[in-house]
Amino acid sequence: HLQLVESGGGLVQPGGSLRLSCAASGFTLDYYNIGWFRQAPGKEREGVSCISSSGDSTVYADSVKGRFTISRDNARNAVYLQMNSLKPEDTAVYYCAADPGAFRTVQAMYVSEYDYWGQGTQVTVSS
Fold first, then answer.
1. Residue 116, exposed/middle/buried by CB under 10 A (0-12, 13-18, 19+)?
2. Would you state the torsion angle of the CA atoms of residues 125, 85, 34, 9, taken in this order, to the nearest 10 degrees?
3. What CA–CA distance (Å, rounded) separates 114 from 41?
């Protein structure tokens, strides 16, 4: 049974930081591109960042460039999203997802590229 589990969400003040983790069970992440997505109430799910299976390629949404950093530790079977300088507009449920295919930079932020999804973790940025 393939499963992704996100953790690390919570309530943080504007300007604060959080580190999200995405852990896999039932499979190893080594061969999967991993994406982080988020969905705010009343909005569509959007791509935040993604990383190729090798870790050599990353993509970021314009809204998070310079503030968020994606990384992976295949030895720990985990992918991370370090979020700094958080803003209220970053408030959303954050999901990680896995894609077994070839990494395609343009499509990497598309929801449709990903086959496996976690349940999500809530991030709330508020004073």
1. middle
2. -30
3. 21
Model confidence pLDDT, tens digit, residues 78-119:
999 999 999 999 999 999 999 998 888 888 999 999 999 999
State the amino acid at position 86 in one-letter form: L
* Tokens coding 92: 């959303």
At a CB cut-off of 8 Å and minimum separation 6, what does 13 contact? 125, 126, 127
DSSP at 53: T
Alpha helices per DSSP H over 1-127: none
pLDDT greater than 90 at residue 35: yes
DSSP designation for 27: S
- List CB contacts of 107: < 8 A, sequence separation 6 or more: 113
